[in-house]
Specification:
heterodimer, A: mainly alpha, B: alpha/beta, 3-stranded antiparallel β-sheet, 37% helix, globular
Chain lengths: 267, 321
C-alpha cells in the first residue's frame, strides 16, 4: 500500500514538473512525435514500392511498429531514471537512494518519469495501431485481446529489464551509453521489420541476446500467422508473454549482484 | 551513557587508475592499467555517545566525506568495524537508515521545479511517517526555520539558504535519532548559517539527536559542537574539546613581519618554550624589520597551522594518553 502511495506521489511530481512549463512540454512532446513519425513515413513510402517484405504487407508492418511504440511509451516513463542512470551515478545522486529505507530499484522506477516522451511515442503507437489493426485480419476476441495485453506488458518488462542490465553496467564502467547505443537502439531499429529478412546472426542476437523479437515480432505472429514463422519454433509465440518476466527477473538478479560493487567503490 | 556510534580501526582505500602523459602511454594504459592506492580513511577509531554533537573537520580530501559515507551505509569499509545505533550500516541498510537523516550540503534532494511541500510529502510516504507526526514536525520545523513564507514556492526560486533549510527539513521529518550534516552551511551568508546552527542546537537539546557535523567553517564548530574531530590524510589527528585545543595553542603565537625590502614573512613559535623577549631579540638582530603584527591565536588560525603542517599534534595526543 505504501509503495502505491510513493509511486503516485512520484508520478504526480513528474506531472506537476512538466505542467510548470506547459508550452515547452507540449512542443517537446510534439517534437518527439514528429521525429518518430518522420521515420515511419519514410519507411511507409519505401514500402509502397513493394507489395510485401517476406510476406508482410504495409499494414502488417505498421502493426509491428505500433507494438514497439506502445511499449516504449510505458518504458520511457517507468524506467526514465534507469535510462539516465550513468549520469545519476556520476553526479553522486545515487547516494541519496542508499540512505532511504526503500528498495533501490523501486526508488528508481517511476521517478522523474519522462511523460513527454511517453506522450510522443504513445500517440504514434496508438495512431499506428488504429490505422493498421482493423486491416490486418485479426479477429479480436477475448483470447486475442488477453494475449495482446499480456504481450504488451511482457514487452515493457523486456525493455525495462534491458534498461536495468545496462544500468547495472554503470557499476563496472564509468560510461555505458555507447554499449546501450549498440545493443539497445540498433536492435530496436532491426525490430521494426520482420526479423526473417536478416542474416542468421542478427536473428540470433535479436531472439536470444537482446530479445526484441519477443517484444513485437512473435506477438504479432500469434495474431497474424505469416508464412515466415516456419523458420522458428512455434513455441516462441506462446512464450512471448512470459519472456518479459524471465528477462526482468534475470535483470533484477544481475542488478543485485552489481550494486554491491557500489558499496566498495563509491563514485 | 551508551555509545551511539562506534568506529574501530576503519580503513577505506581507493584504487585509482594512474594516467600517464602522452599518446603512447595512454594507449598502453588501455590494456595494462596501473593502479595507485589512495588511503581515503586510514585506520580511524572513535566513539560517539547518544546526544553528542561532534564537529568533523579536515582539509579537502582528508577523508571526512568518506567517513560520513561509511557511517551512513553508503560505503563498505575495507577493514575495521562500524556500529551505529546497534546496526552495521552497510549490512542492514533498509533497517538502519530509518534511524538516520543525512544532509549532503552540496547535493540537494529536493525537486528543483516544485514547491518544498511536494518533496516533503514524498518523504512522508518513503519513511512511513504517521500523518499526525508529519504535521507536527512540519509545523515545528517551519516555525524554527522561518519557512512559512516560501514553502509553497518552487525550489528553483529559493535562495541557497532557503533551499538548504528545505533540505535539512526533508532529512529530519522522520525524526531520526542520528543526523549526519555534510557541509550544511557551505556557501551560505552569516544570517543563514546562524539560523541553521540554532536549529541544529535546538534539535540536539530537545530531541537528544546525535549529530555529526562536517564543515570548513570554524564558527560552526565553535557555536554548535561540543567536541571536535580533526581528520587529515585519512588519519584522526585530534579528538577532544575546542577549549582544550585553544588552551593548548594559547602559547603558540604567530607574528607577521613586514621587512624593509617590502617582503612579508610569517613566524610561528611557542612562548612556553621560547620567551617572547628572546624571540623578539633574535628577530630584530637578524632582519631589517619595518613593521610587526602579533596575531591572536584564533581557532581559525590554529586549524590553518595544523593543516599546513606548522603545528604537529603528536605531542598533544601523547600528553593526553
Amino acid at each position: 500500500m505504501g509503495e502505491v502511495r510513493i509511486a503516485l506521489q512520484s508520478l504526480k511530481m513528474s506531472f506537476s514538473t512538466r505542467m510548470q512549463y506547459r508550452v515547452d512540454s507540449l512542443v517537446a512532446a510534439l517534437a518527439v512525435f514528429i521525429r518518430e513519425s518522420a521515420n515511419i513515413i519514410v519507411i511507409y513510402l519505401a514500402l509502397l514500392k513493394f507489395d510485401s517484405i517476406n510476406g508482410w504487407n504495409v499494414n502488417e508492418m505498421l502493426f509491428l511498429f505500433s507494438i514497439l511504440f506502445l511499449t516504449y511509451a510505458f518504458v520511457v516513463s517507468l524506467f526514465a531514471d534507469l535510462r539516465d542512470f550513468s549520469r545519476m551515478i556520476r553526479e553522486g545522486r545515487f547516494d541519496r537512494l542508499l540512505v532511504r529505507p526503500r528498495g533501490l530499484l523501486f526508488q528508481l522506477i517511476l521517478n522523474n518519469a519522462d511523460l513527454i516522451a511517453s506522450v510522443g511515442h504513445g500517440t504514434l503507437g496508438v495512431l499506428l495501431f488504429l490505422v493498421s489493426a482493423g486491416k490486418v485480419g485479426i479477429h479480436w476476441n477475448f483470447a486475442t485481446i488477453l494475449y495482446y495485453v499480456c504481450a504488451i506488458i511482457s514487452g515493457i518488462l523486456i525493455q525495462g529489464g534491458m534498461f536495468i542490465i545496462f544500468s547495472s553496467l554503470s557499476f563496472y564502467f564509468v560510461e555505458t551509453n555507447s554499449i546501450r547505443e549498440i545493443f539497445y537502439w540498433n536492435m530496436r531499429k532491426f525490430a521494426g521489420y520482420p526479423i526473417s529478412i536478416y542474416h542468421k546472426l542478427i536473428q540470433g542476437l535479436i531472439i536470444y541476446v537482446i530479445p526484441f523479437a519477443f517484444v513485437n515480432y512473435f506477438p504479432a505472429q500469434y495474431l497474424l500467422r505469416k508464412p515466415d514463422m516456419v523458420n522458428y519454433n512455434e513455441i516462441y509465440i506462446y512464450i512471448a508473454p512470459l519472456v518479459g518476466i524471465i528477462v526482468y527477473l534475470a535483470a533484477y538478479a544481475f542488478w543485485r549482484v552489481s550494486v554491491k560493487r557500489y558499496y566498495s567503490t563509491g563514485n | 551513557m551508551e555509545n551511539m556510534i562506534e568506529v574501530r580501526d576503519v580503513k577505506k582505500y581507493y584504487k585509482i587508475a594512474k594516467r600517464e602523459k602522452g599518446m603512447a602511454a595512454a594507449a598502453g594504459n588501455l590494456f595494462n592499467r596501473k593502479y595507485e592506492t589512495k588511503r581515503a580513511v586510514d585506520d580511524i577509531s572513535f566513539s560517539i555517545k547518544k546526544g553528542e554533537i561532534v564537529g568533523f573537520i579536515g582539509p579537502n580530501g582528508a577523508g571526512k566525506s568518506t567517513t560520513v559515507k561509511i557511517l551512513s551505509g553508503i560505503l563498505y569499509p575495507d577493514a575495521g568495524e562500524v556500529k551505529v545505533g546497534g546496526f552495521i550500516p552497510y549490512k542492514q541498510r533498509k533497517q538502519y537508515v530509518k534511524n538516520i537523516g543525512v544532509v549532503f550540503g552540496q547535493k540537494s534532494q529536493l525537486n528543483w521545479d516544485l514547491p518544498l511541500i511536494e518533496s516533503f510529502e514524498l518523504m512522508k510516504f518513503i519513511y512511513k511517517i504517521p500523518q499526525k507526526k508529519y504535521e507536527e514536525n512540519l509545523r515545528l520545523f517551519s516555525k524554527l526555520l522561518d519557512m512559512e513564507e516560501f514553502i509553497n514556492q518552487p525550489v528553483r526560486q529559493l535562495s541557497l539558504g532557503q533551499r538548504m533549510r528545505g533540505d535539512i527539513v526533508a532529512s529530519l521529518l522522520h525524526s531520526p535519532e542520528i543526523v549526519f550534516l555534510d557541509e550544511p552551511t557551505i556557501g551560505l551568508d552569516v544570517v543563514a548559517k546562524e539560523r541553521i546552527r540554532e536549529f541544529v542546537r535546538y534539535m540536539n537539546e530537545t530531541e537528544r539527536t546525535t549529530i555529526i557535523f562536517t564543515t570548513h567553517d570554524m564558527q560552526d564548530i565553535e557555536k554548535v559542537c561540543d567536541r571536535l574531530i580533526i581528520i587529515d590524510k585519512g588519519k584522526k589527528i585530534y579528538d577532544g574539546s575546542i577549549e582544550e585545543i585553544k588552551n593548548r595553542y594559547a602559547n603558540i603565537k604567530t607574528i607577521e613581519l613586514l621587512l624593509e625590502d617590502g617582503r612579508k614573512e610569517t613566524k610561528t613559535f611557542d612562548v612556553s618554550k621560547t620567551p617572547m623577549s628572546v624571540v623578539m631579540e633574535s628577530l630584530f638582530s637578524e632582519k631589517n624589520i619595518k613593521d610587526i603584527t602579533l596575531c591572536e591565536s584564533e581557532i581559525d588560525s590554529i586549524i590553518r597551522d595544523i593543516y599546513e603542517g606548522r603545528v604537529i599534534l603528536d605531542d598533544l595526543e601523547a600528553e593526553r594518553n
